[in-house]
């Protein structure tokens, strides 16, 4: 498996864009039965982290810069393809995303986590900073990791 970290949307290949939009659609819209506006303007301003197994996109996250969504950078659209789950790739994806932001010398990271994943993110060092709230029909919480 090989990491691919793209700093600018302009440097993404058409295949990368197709692959991550397809993965996000399959998980967040179809699997979770949630109609929401996945294709937003934040993709243009974000970094994109992908883990490929040859030509198959196994895992993906988007790193949104500070000031675009929250005061601090945010990791979002964290997704692992169904055939690659329960292999520790979600943890590796979150750790790699954190590492990239730590190397960029940021103070903190904010995420909007689905409530059922709270313990997973706490195990990566995030702490809950909000009460549960509904976002696109799914209960979320905001979490913060101090770097």
Give the helices and strands, then pairings.
Blueprint: E1 2-6, H1 14-31, H2 42-45, E2 47-53, E3 56-64, E4 74-80, H3 89-103, E5 108-114, H4 118-123, E6 127-128, E7 133-135, E8 138-146
Antiparallel strand pairs: 1-2, 2-3, 3-4, 5-8, 6-8, 7-8
Q: Work out the helicity level.
A: 25-40%
The SSE string, one letter per element, is EHHEEEHEHEEE
The CATH homologous superfamily name equals Gcn5-related N-acetyltransferase (GNAT)
Name of the CATH architecture: 3-Layer(aba) Sandwich
Overall description:
- There is one protein chain.
- The protein is of the alpha+beta class and 147 residues long.
- It has a single domain, classed as 3-Layer(aba) Sandwich (Aminopeptidase).
- It is 29% helix and 33% strand.
- It has 4 helices and 8 strands.
- The protein has helices spanning 14-31, 42-45, 89-103, 118-123, and strands at 2-6, 47-53, 56-64, 74-80, 108-114, 127-128, 133-135, 138-146.
- It has a 4-stranded antiparallel sheet, with helices on both faces. Strands 5, 6, 7 and 8 form a 4-stranded antiparallel sheet that branches.
- Strand 2 and strand 3 form a beta hairpin.
- The protein is globular and about 40 Å long.
């Amino acid at each position: 498996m090989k990491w691919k970290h793209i700093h600018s949307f302009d440097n993404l290949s058409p295949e990368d864009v197709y692959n991550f939009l397809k993965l996000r659609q399959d998980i967040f819209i179809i699997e979770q039965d949630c109609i929401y506006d996945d294709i937003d303007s934040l993709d243009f301003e974000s970094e994109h982290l992908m883990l490929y197994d040859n030509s198959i996109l196994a895992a993906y996250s988007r790193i949104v810069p500070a000031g675009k969504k929250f005061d601090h950078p945010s990791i979002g659209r964290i997704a692992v393809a169904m055939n690659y789950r329960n292999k520790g790739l979600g943890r590796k994806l979150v750790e790699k995303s954190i590492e990239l932001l730590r190397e960029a010398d940021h103070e903190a990271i904010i995420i909007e986590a689905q409530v059922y994943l709270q313990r997973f993110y706490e195990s990566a060092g995030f702490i809950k900073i909000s009460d549960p709230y509904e976002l696109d029909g799914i209960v979320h919480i905001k979490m913060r990791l101090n770097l």
